[in-house]
What does this fold into?
Amino acid sequence: MSSFFQVQYRVDISKNTVFLLESPLESYQGKLVKNLDLTKPVEIAENVFWVGSYIKDDIFQCHPYLIREGTESVLIDPGSLITFEETLRKIKYLTDLENIKYIICHHQDPDLAASLPEIEKVFPERERYIVTHWRTYFLLKHYNLLTPFYLVDQHEFRLELESGRKLQFLFTPYMHYPGNIVTYDPETKVLFSSDIFGGWVEKDWSLFAEKEEYIESIRAFHEIYMPCREVVIYSIEKLKKLDIEIIAPQHGSVIAGKDFVKKVMSAVEDFEYGKMVEAKNIEIFKIREQRRHIFSLIEDVAIKKLFMSEILRVVEKQLSSVLPIRDIIVMLKVGNHLYVYSKESGYIPRKLDELKLHQGNFFIYGNGYIKIFVELENSFSLSSEDREFLDSIASLLIYVAKREKWFLSIQERRELLKDRAYKDILTGFYRREILNDLIEKEFYRSKRYGYHFSILMIDIDNFKKVNDTYGHLVGDKVLKKVAETTKKTIRKSDVAIRYGGEEFLIILPHTDLEAAKIAAERIRKNIEKLDVDGVKVTVSVGIADNSLSPKLEDLIRKADQALYIAKRTGKNKVVAATS
It folds into this structure.
């Protein structure tokens, strides 16, 4: 057997508490467990195990159970396809699959019975029976099952195992299904109660009901699920005659302790039933279920998807299905930049100097560095339940936004380091060392595909005289101002390189010689207007285009020769290479 059996869980009936056993199974000594490990089977009574699966944020927890009885073990309410894999794993902890001889189905709902076809595929072949009521059989047969049925109504509502253990079945019609039954195990005094005594737990679900407040969870479930008080009283009167110490329902939490069981039974008799017929309650129920599903879906996406854009598209689509959402805008301040995500841009981030919002019905979350704006239709007013739901979604988005901000800060840091490595600090132009990396591929692509490619070689006139007369600080100002003016004049697609001390190389992709002359003249004229601390500045420009040479180095040399001619023939002029 697995070493798991050295660590088990058991209920102390006298104290209504759950204990972790550190000694063999027969012992009831141990320490109180407040947080059970639900990844393992939980023993709720001797050789009776919870083998279910905890689904986070689901108010409708579904519970299969296993009575371990050697080769006649009994699986009770096996569950749905959502939980079957986990149930199967837990059963394997406890016994071989071929030891399961009986599968009890208290009713036919898919959260209880949908796994039956999978069981037939996975469980080894042997004599095995599905135990149920004839009314349930007429629906379960539509699964096209090969396993034979053991109908309790044809066997005096009893199942006797070869070991002598006897299970009793009680007919509890319309709770909530016409052919509903429950199972009682006299040996452990456990009632497997199907939907009866089940509960909806919105927060802090635990396998074992710890407080009497759990009765309100039972009320929320029963008043909608059960049809009327007369039906409930009919079944509860039957159950009161049993010596019950533990109630193991299909939903909610296990109820342990005779006193607690009695209080629950008494409370159930006094609930108001049949509330599903009230349209308002039906609508509230549907809305709550839909919103729980949406929150769970968004939470899952927030964990699995890395980027804000993807997540916001899901959030906007899901929220719009339950609230009149106009837009969701997220603003992240990273360094000196604002990154803004909105429906208008398809939630692709834009860098803005500031965020300007129009007048609207906005709900705002976050702080100075992270802000989330949820815009609703102007006429819509949030209820307290709407606001609570929106707040919960916003808290998820803030978590995602913090992660996104961290990604962006890393990206900005990387770009800054790249700029420092690739660019000249004084002018902001690329350094000559990376000329080949930047230009060579573009030049040869232009030759291959036959588009124009031009080069401007720019030199500041009389720059040595500026340094000698006014000093290097003024000389640096002149360099910086010329670079700023040039950058403002050229296109974003053009590339500026500091080629030498006062020499700049400008690459103009998709630009023929005539267009290059116009660009060069524009640069020359704009620089001619400069006055830097009383110093007048001019430049000379040499031009060459890719029609002159199939080699980049030759093209640069020709532009440099044209520059030399411009300098020799008067300066402050543009000269184009002709051969």
